[in-house]
Q: What sequence folds into this?
């Protein structure tokens, strides 16, 4: 292979030249029948990317499905799905590849129908430039405006408006100028870095590659000239360093590498780095690849970093420049495109995936929807398929991000339905909300591990849940006494006691009950950090809130203990006379009477108070702690 | 050896493709419970395997390789397969449809379409269900064929392994939705954005081993209905008047030998192959008989679970 014969020398030179070509990803969009697929077919044909056998198949298919009489129907070349060819429309985004002597291109041909806007957004998310087609006979349509808006929203800075089918308006300059003015009137508001408006006929080939003799009045570049020469300023390597950790590579005890793709900036061995969420810092020791260690890796590279120190890093962490860290927040404002038939409602939980981080998210507030035609802001209570809205989101745990405008990879997310697993929305983050923003967690030297080692125990939350009167406090109290006798460090948070102090401003509405649990969960988390075995005795009737409390601490630290007592028995005991009051209607929203109790599905421990006494049930809990290594026996 | 990093500050096209594929492969390993890499022994599979090794170096890839063996592959392919799996330090699972084998389903007596259904599509579905894989890597590229151009990189399959092209999950940025329920799975195509030229260029640049059948050599062939078929073993029934003759041929694509057309060629080096490809005016799948029936045939097969 190293022999440089005549042929191989020429081929090697050719390949080296291929490697040096520029690269551009663009989308084509526009309304139905504006001729997008025909345009791409034309580009492939004219750049000689269509092979003879494909051409033969194309001629055959043109006779069967074609819409252009005896001519070759270029659209059939790209409309790959059977349903599309039958209906003559493009349903899904198709990716096409072609090259000129200057550049390689990936084109995402996106569908025009409004109902397929989500597929258009799919294509736009990875493009650097958009070609928006307009049918010269029809001028600017709603879809033109919608697509321009989405293109702008998804951060595409370069736009070409191709005014197509000029042959059908007799190549009229007047008509072209009209459309040009109409587009600029609203397109100007998007502040695209470049905006080029070109009169073309994809079908006849005018101004696609060669200048059209039929339109001598047009002095701008042809479409391909423009695509060949436009400068896309995509130099992510000059931005602050970010590498979301995708995978921790641990083949043996001597090697621990963090694998990921650098999404911005560059890195060299010896560079200081910070872990965005924990605040820990270290230095890069090695940049490992199968081709040998590198002394530089830049944005776009997929690498494996080895750090100098044993820091705790896992998937979802972002290794970043220490002097310019990403924001860490659990609340932010974002534009969301909704892609699901079922509407989005504020308050409903979805999974949010941003980089390698996946958390639970809810839209807490729909600020406004955006009318895609007038770009007006409209008030909204819910969001439907293909709508775009500006909203606030709240997350179950913080993520590291940068605003989408400054970093596409660090500022984008998708929303996934937790039950159907469908991708139901996509969003671009603008800014973190108030308190969460810019408070970087201070990494403390005396940490949880140090605290718990001193105490000789593994900290945990023992979360006792069950009906009022089930015996939670009694058992929790006994457990704490037994642990205390064993010399263990504990603290008991009791629902009623907490409501007299920390939570005395809270009532019993649903929102207050959620806040009640959230605060107790946070306090329990701090106590766990202090190395304590923390006992929490709360009715906590809803699974979602117990899950929320569980999510606050690390995996394995949350022990859900279901104190199981039949309602009749609890009501019979009624130690505080509350059931009686509830039955008399003097107490509203009482769990078990007029408010539901959701039984835990996967409690670590279930204590049946109708079968055993409190003393032996407390022993069960202590035994669990011994068996699972939280304390020594 | 071709020097790729000529201008270090400008990221080369191949490096960009390589990085994207590695990212995809790692994402699967990180998020899926039980992935497998489908290994067809062809040049695209060779590139995919190479990328998987790069993704996890110095560890071996954390998933097995699986080959659906129709029993009609070229013999050289099988030898190559075993060698590559051992070299990568990966487990190799080989599956053949036992019913098909018992009934001796073959391309000559049963026709290419039924044979492909039983020995490839059904066999693949059997193997995926048997091992309960929830993700399977495939080496398909979007430039190969029209329905592939529309397929996502992470392509969802229901519990019957079928593809619903009208209801694909939106796939934005590099945020791949990997969520599946029990029995469902995802086909993952790390080479989606590679072209045939990219593949050859990368093989050349990285010195990736490929099956020798890609290079021209004297091989026993017969010409049948305009296609040159290699007589790889004695199971191939010869028609009246057919006499195998030695011709200098090579293969642009590899599959089951009775269904894979050879081309007459003198290309004995990778450079020769690339040069031949550059002047070729016939796209690579035309050597595969499966696509000839109808241009919508690939989509149909994919809906039914074909890779």
A:
């Amino acid at each position: 292979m190293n022999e440089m014969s005549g042929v191989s020398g020429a081929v090697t030179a050719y390949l080296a030249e291929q490697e040096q070509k520029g690269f551009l990803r663009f989308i084509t969009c526009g309304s139905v029948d504006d001729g997008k697929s025909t345009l791409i077919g034309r580009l492939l044909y004219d750049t000689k990317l269509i092979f003879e056998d494909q051409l033969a198949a194309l001629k055959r298919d043109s006779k069967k499905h074609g819409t252009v009489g005896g001519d070759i129907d270029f659209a059939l070349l790209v409309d790959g799905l059977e349903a599309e060819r039958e209906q003559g429309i493009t349903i899904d985004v198709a990716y096409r590849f072609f090259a000129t002597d200057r550049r390689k291109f990936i084109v995402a041909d996106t569908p025009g129908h409004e109902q397929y806007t989500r597929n258009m957004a799919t294509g736009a998310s990875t493009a650097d430039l958009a070609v928006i087609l307009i049918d010269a006979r029809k001028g600017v349509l709603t879809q033109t405006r919608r697509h321009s808006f989405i293109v702008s929203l998804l951060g595409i800075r370069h736009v070409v408006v191709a005014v197509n089918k000029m042959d059908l308006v007799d190549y009229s300059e007047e008509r072209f100028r009209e459309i040009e003015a109409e587009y600029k009137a609203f397109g100007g508001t998007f502040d695209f870095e470049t905006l080029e408006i070109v009169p073309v006929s994809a079908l006849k080939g005018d101004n696609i590659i060669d200048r059209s003799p039929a339109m001598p009045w047009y002095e701008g570049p042809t479409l391909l000239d423009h695509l060949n020469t436009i400068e896309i300023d995509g130099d992510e390597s000059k931005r602050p360093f970010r590498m979301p950790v995708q995978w921790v590579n641990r083949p043996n005890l001597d090697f621990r590498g963090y694998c990921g793709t650098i999404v911005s900036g560059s890195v060299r061995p010896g560079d200081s780095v910070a872990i965005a969420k924990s605040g820990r810092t270290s230095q890069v020791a090695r940049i490992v690849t199968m081709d040998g260690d590198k002394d530089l890796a830049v944005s776009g590279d997929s690498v494996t970093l080895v750090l100098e120190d044993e820091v705790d890093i896992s998937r979802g962490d972002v290794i970043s420049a220490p002097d310019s860290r990403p924001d860490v927040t659990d609340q932010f404002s974002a534009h969301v495109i909704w892609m699901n038939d079922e509407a989005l409602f504020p308050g409903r939980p979805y999974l949010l995936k941003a980089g390698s981080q996946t958390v639970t998210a809810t839209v807490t507030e729909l600020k406004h929807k955006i009318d895609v035609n007038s770009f007006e802001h409209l008030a909204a209570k819910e969001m439907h398929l293909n709508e775009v809205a500006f909203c606030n989101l709240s997350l179950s745990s913080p993520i590291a991000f940068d605003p989408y405008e400054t970093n596409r990879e660090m500022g984008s997310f998708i929303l996934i339905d937790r039950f159907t697993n469908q991708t139901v929305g996509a969003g671009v983050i603008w800014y973190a909300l108030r308190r969460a923003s810019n408070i970087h967690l201070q990494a403390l030297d005396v940490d949880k591990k140090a605290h718990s080692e001193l105490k000789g125990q593994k900290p945990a939350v023992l979360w006792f849940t069950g009906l009022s009167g089930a015996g939670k406090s009694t058992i929790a109290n006994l457990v704490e006494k037994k642990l205390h006798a064993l010399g263990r460090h504990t603290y008991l948070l009791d629902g009623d006691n907490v409501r007299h102090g920390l939570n005395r401003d809270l009532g019993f509405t649903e929102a207050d009950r959620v806040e009640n649990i959230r605060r107790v969960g946070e306090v329990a988390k701090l106590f766990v950090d202090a190395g304590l075995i923390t006992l929490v005795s709360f009715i906590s009737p809803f699974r979602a809130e117990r899950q929320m409390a569980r999510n606050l601490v690390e995996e394995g630290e949350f022990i859900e203990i279901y104190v199981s007592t039949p309602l009749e028995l609890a009501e019979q005991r009624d130690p505080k006379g509350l059931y009686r009051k509830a039955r008399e209607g003097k107490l509203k929203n009482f769990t078990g009477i007029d408010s539901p109790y959701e039984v835990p599905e996967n409690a670590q421990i279930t204590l049946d108070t109708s079968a055993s006494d409190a003393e032996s049930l407390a022993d069960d809990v202590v035994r669990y702690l011994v068996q699972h290594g939280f304390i020594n026996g | 050896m071709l020097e790729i990093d000529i201008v270090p500050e400008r990221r080369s096209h191949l490096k960009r493709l390589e990085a994207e594929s590695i990212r995809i492969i790692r994402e699967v390993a990180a998020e899926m419970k039980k992935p497998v890499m489908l290994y067809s022994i062809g040049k695209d599979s060779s590139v995919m395997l190479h990328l998987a090794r790069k993704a996890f170096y110095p560890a071996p890839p954390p998933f097995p390789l699986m080959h659906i063996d129709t029993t009609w592959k070229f013999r050289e392919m099988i030898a190559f397969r075993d060698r590559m799996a051992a070299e990568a330090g990966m487990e190799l699972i080989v599956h053949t449809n036992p019913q098909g084998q018992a009934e001796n389903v073959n391309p000559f007596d049963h026709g290419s379409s039924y044979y492909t259904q039983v020995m490839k599509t059904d066999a693949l579905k059997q193997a995926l269900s048997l091992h309960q894989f929830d993700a399977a890597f495939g080496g398909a590229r979007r430039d190969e064929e029209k329905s592939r151009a529309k397929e996502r990189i992470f392509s969802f399959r229901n519990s019957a392994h079928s593809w619903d092209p009208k209801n694909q999950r939106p796939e934005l940025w590099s945020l791949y939705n990997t969520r599946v329920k029990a029995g469902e799975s995802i086909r993952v195509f790390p080479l989606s954005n590679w072209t045939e030229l990219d593949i050859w260029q990368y093989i050349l640049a990285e010195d990736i081993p490929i099956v020798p059948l890609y290079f021209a050599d004297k091989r026993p062939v017969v010409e049948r209905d305009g296609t040159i078929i290699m007589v790889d073993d004695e199971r191939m029934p010869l028609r009246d008047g057919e006499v195998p003759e030695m011709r200098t041929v090579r293969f642009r694509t590899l599959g089951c030998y009775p269904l894979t057309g050879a081309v007459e060629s003198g290309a004995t080096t990778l450079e020769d192959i690339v040069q031949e490809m550059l002047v070729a005016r016939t796209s690579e799948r035309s050597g595969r008989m499966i696509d000839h029936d109808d241009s919508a045939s690939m989509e149909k097969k994919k809906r039914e679970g074909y890779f």
About this structure: Residues 1-10, 290-295 of chain B have pLDDT under 50 and may be disordered.
